[in-house]
Amino acid sequence: MKKIFYLIIIFAVNVSFGQDYSSVIKSYLQQNRTQFSLQQQDISDISIASQGSSKTMNVHNVYVEQRHQGIKVFNSVSPFVIKDGAVLNAKLSFTENVAAKVNSKTPSISAVMAISKAANALGLDNPSNLNLVETVSDTRYIFSNGNISLENIPVELVYQKMDDTGALKLAWDLSIYLLDASHYYSVRIDALTGNLLDSHDWVVSCNFEGSHSHTNTGSLLFADTKVENASRTLGDGASYRVFALPLIAPNDGADQIVSDPSDPVASPFGWHDWDGVAGPEFTETKGNNVLANEDRNGNNGNGATAEGGPTLTFDFPYNLPQTPVNFLDAAITNLFYMNNMIHDILYHYGFDEESGNFQKNNYGNPGNGNDFVVADAQDGSGMNNANFGTPPDGGAPRMQMYLWNAPGKILGTFLTVNNGPLAGVYYAADSNFAPPLPVSPLTAELEVISDSSGDPHDGCNTITNGADLNGKIVVIRRGTCAYNIKTLAAQNAGAIAVIVVNDVPGDPLAMGGNGSGITIPAVMVYQSDGEALISSILNGDTINATLEDDGSGNDPFQRDGDLDNVIIGHEYGHGVSNRLTGGPSQAGCLQNEEQMGEGWSDYIGLMLTMKVGDSRNDYRGIGTYALGEGIGGRGLRTKYYNTDFAVNDFTYNSIKTQAVPHGIGSVWATMLWDLTWDLIDRYGFDPDVKNGTGGNNIALQLVMDGMKLQPCSPGFVDGRDAILEADQLLYGGVNRCLIWRAFAKRGLGENAIQGNTNSRADGTENFDVPAGCELGVSDNDANGINFIIYPNPSNGELSIQSRMDVGEAAISIFDMNGRKVFNQTVELRQSATINASGLTSGIYLMQIDSAERSQTTKLIIN
């Protein structure tokens, strides 16, 4: 008897926009089923959770969930990359042999009972007045908040994978947002027994960790975004007194007024709009991207906003240092500004509406709206912390910013240079051995000490310019001898004060030692500031300066996290990584132990505050202002962010000993920081964070797109591979070997083994790079790459980015028979575009020739 088996694939598309890629994905899964070790039943019932187009990579990102008999497998969402109607790549999180692993398809307890069981497991009061709000489907319901949640409670029948056995247990998946907003629990309750199977928190906090007692439009990086009507180019004329990016915080520079900073593409109607019509709806710190208000009583109510009046002028004084409540309107303004700036900047890197960004009104673009950030300033529900709660797309996130006790050494603006190109106010640390700085200004010319030691300016040997020091403020390098010795030597030569120059990029130290016999004050300044003074003086400049106690060095006041731009960037980063990993309809794909959420958050905070003149060997910390440190402080992490192994020796194996999750994230951010500086070394630094073309812009784009490409519950190897894939899609893989070398340096080389991403202990580090990627080998040497051509593969519309201004360049394209099929001359100063769309699909060679440089690159035309 002939048996005929019919394949029935049930494909439910849960999205209401975009092309239906079901047939493409079904075909791909069918063709590759054996490769993924899946049975027919494992792919017979799947659904699209979300999808979107990536303008940067010129692909469609489709996120697919596995289901069994109409019930989805929790956190099985898998990213598919689709280009020109075909699947380029997929990273599956499906369970194999699913039918043999499920325990039931019929629940024994109701959805209502599941809510009560969850409340009991979480230690909450029993829900009251719990009513059914909506029946979404036979397995999905929405209930009222039951007086235990800030939001209505959605409940859905799912299969929960049990890590210990691999079994799939029928469960009710629900979320409860605690009334104090401290936790937003996503919970799985066993649908047969009512037991708690799994829970995680959508609120991610940036707690103290360890000891802290130490001290250009048209960019080629982005797709062209067209303005569809004249109103989209209008700003709203608002102005804000803030610590403007790229400032880290008040310890990095003074507050200033910024005028109309909203981006015409990301926020086309300004920051105070809701209706998508020209003209603001609000004159307060409220708008399409964020509502910033105070929550000093910690009740998550309708706290006061800062009011800008009809002219939208948010000019409130800070007058630091003082008690934070005295500058509450200013703090709210800075919080509003930063949330909007991060929204607008990251929009250009692909965190837009269909990728799940945070907006009330999506202005007709795909994705769910009504999810602007609610940002609580000076939140009274906690201290020494900040957090960000991220529900799936369409649910409003909440950022809570707290006050900090600032246990670190407070630097003061003790030094003022009164003349010349270095004129300005400088941070310094007063010593613990010399008399304190006078309250009355101490003004004199600066002079650099000279002595007979190996370093003639560290004051560690016999002074050779003693006569020049009389009556001067003497500048001395830190060196190797005791602070009190060099200070006493300068005093004996007639100095009236001493400025010690730090010899590392970290914060100045409160110098200690025996102060016997010392009668003049001594302070330490940053290495970069002090070395600039030394160079200027040795070049013959006369510099007049003032030392005085401005009172800030004994700041008794709490620090306000609303002024720490790095912490705000970090918290917002949690929303970004949670929405991009697994697609915007998910919020739980970063709950595994090896996940890198804290790392992406640190990285975003660092990237937003990079400046011209920064160095790969600078000491960068997280939360330095909140902890009472200067910009060279270590902040909340156990190591500085620095590419020098002598300062930060993290490798992949370090995640086995670092704390979860912040320590693990710090290792990942260290790798991304190395990669960023390698790209800056190749392409330079561009201060235009939105539209620049520097290595910093390229790095941020790769990291953002990498999050879209990686699977749910990623580990370090997944994250590395996603960045490599992003480089292939964005730039034709031109940075492949640079990326490999950056990761291999930290033990995430070609043969690194990730193990189970639910464990941080089973990975194996490796420092190998693929053959041909060794430094100086083939065309992967940084000096050999002059031009980047992308996208590659391409439809013929190509962008060319040049590392330098080469002037006129000839662009020639040859087919594989050596025939020239395209020729054009362009001005290639920084970038240029060509249109070779007339070429048929195939493989070509593109040759770029300028007067001094040339390069040949393989080109694929689709």
Automatic annotation (TrEMBL):
Q: Which cofactor does it need?
A: Zn(2+)
Q: Which UniProt keywords apply?
A: Hydrolase, Metal-binding, Metalloprotease, Protease, Secreted, Signal, Zinc, Zymogen
The highest taxon in the source lineage is: Bacteria
What sequence ranges are listed for the domain Secretion system C-terminal sorting? Answer: 789-861
Looking at the record, the residues that make up the PA domain are 451-533
Any idea where this protein resides? Secreted
List the InterPro entries.
Fungal_virulence_M36, PA_dom_sf, PA_domain, Peptidase_M36, Peptidase_M4/M1_CTD_sf, Secre_tail
Tell me, what's a Pfam family for it?
Answer: Peptidase_M36
Q: Can you tell me which family this protein belongs to?
A: Belongs to the peptidase M36 family.
Name recorded for this polypeptide: T9SS-dependent M36 family metallopeptidase
Origin organism is Aequorivita aurantiaca
